[in-house]
Amino acid sequence: MNTGSNEPAEVAEPATGAEAEQPLGSRAPQYVQARRMLHLSWQVGVFVVGLAVVVAGIIMLPLPGPGWLVIFGGMAIWATEFVWAQLVLRWTKRKVTEAAQRALDPAVRRRNIILTTVGLVIVAVLVAIYVWKFGITMPWKIKE
């Protein structure tokens, strides 16, 4: 809107935070996006690969392995093509960032240190009671 003054138009500030994120939507090459059947095939392929990675991550949860890391890797694969996965990843990143900031709060850190200390004292007392009652004997060698 021109008000007739000689003031320069407002310059948009560089995007920060959520505005700096990439736009939602497919990140498939333009060649693939231009052809409907090829794009559909691309989406099916991305979904299948992402599903395989997510399932592998779910299997790793009770087994040794970086289960959650692999699950988020599968979500990242899905996010290259699907808006819902992009939104889930944005929400997850925001929540992780908020949790990290809360954990750095001095009051929260002090509370966590106190709770950890109390927990260690309780464990030490339980170990001392066990050693006093049974001595240093492994549980499978206890004779009653």
Describe the protein in words.
It is a single chain. By secondary structure, the protein is mainly alpha-helical. 64% of the residues lie in helices and 0% in strands. It is built from five helices and no strands. It has helices spanning 30-33, 36-60, 67-79, 83-103, 106-134. Helix 2 packs antiparallel against helix 3 and helix 3 packs across helix 4. The longest helix is centred in the last third of the chain and has 29 residues, at 106-134. The chain is elongated and about 75 Å long. The N and C termini lie far apart (91 Å). Residues 1-5 and 7-15 have low confidence and may be disordered.
Produce the secondary structure layout.
Blueprint: H1 30-33, H2 36-60, H3 67-79, H4 83-103, H5 106-134
Helix pairs in contact: 2-3, 3-4
Describe the structure using short key phrases.
144 residues, mainly alpha, 5 helices, 64% helix
Q: What share of residues is helical?
A: 55-70%
Question: In angstroms, what is the radius of gyration?
Answer: 27 Å
Our measurement of the CA-to-CA distance between the termini, rounded to an integer number of angstroms, reads 91 Å
Q: What is the mean pLDDT?
A: 79
Order of helices and strands: HHHHH
Low-pLDDT residue intervals, each spanning 5 or more residues: 1-5, 7-15
Form type:
elongated
Strand content: under 5%
Class derived from helix and strand content: mainly alpha
Q: How many strands? A: 0
| Oligomer kind | single chain
- Counted by DSSP, the helix tally is 5
Largest sheet: none
